[in-house]
Specification:
Elements lengths: L1 E8 L1 H5 L3 H21 L2 E6 L7 E6 L2 E6 L8 E9 L3 H9 L7 E7 L5
Antiparallel strand pairs: 1-5, 1-6, 2-5, 3-4
């Protein structure tokens, strides 16, 4: 089964880190991706640009409106994702708990729905 691990964190947490701490966190994250590849859990992952670069699209009454920024004001922002393979939710949760950014924010684990 596939699970999407949505990585949320407060941007201020990263801003408060030194350059060397951010570099170490990035290295640790890339190392964990490599570990997931070796274990067979890894499908794909990416970090996202800051929420300030987001555009929200809404279609209402036949019209499209695009606005700058996220659709909601929250402290934690979606910073990236990792799509994994796991036998069951408990295994996916164990994998998500080891994502380095889990120490700064939260990881939402959600099963992928197969539309076939």
């Amino acid at each position: 089964m596939k699970y999407l691990c949505l990585v949320y964190f407060e941007p201020k947490a990263l801003e408060g880190m030194s350059a060397s701490e951010r570099t170490a966190l990035t290295r640790e994250s890339l190392d964990y991706d490599a570990e997931l590849r070796r274990s067979g859990h890894y499908i794909v992952s990416n970090a996202l640009q800051p929420v300030s670069t987001a555009t929200t699209v809404r279609v209402r009454h036949g019209g499209t409106v695009a606005t700058d920024g996220p659709f909601a004001e929250t402290k934690e922002h979606l910073g990236g994702f990792i799509l994994i393979k796991a036998k069951a939710l408990d295994e996916a949760v164990r994998v998500a708990a080891r994502i380095p950014l889990a120490r700064l924010g939260s990881i939402e684990v959600r099963p992928v729905m197969a539309l076939e």
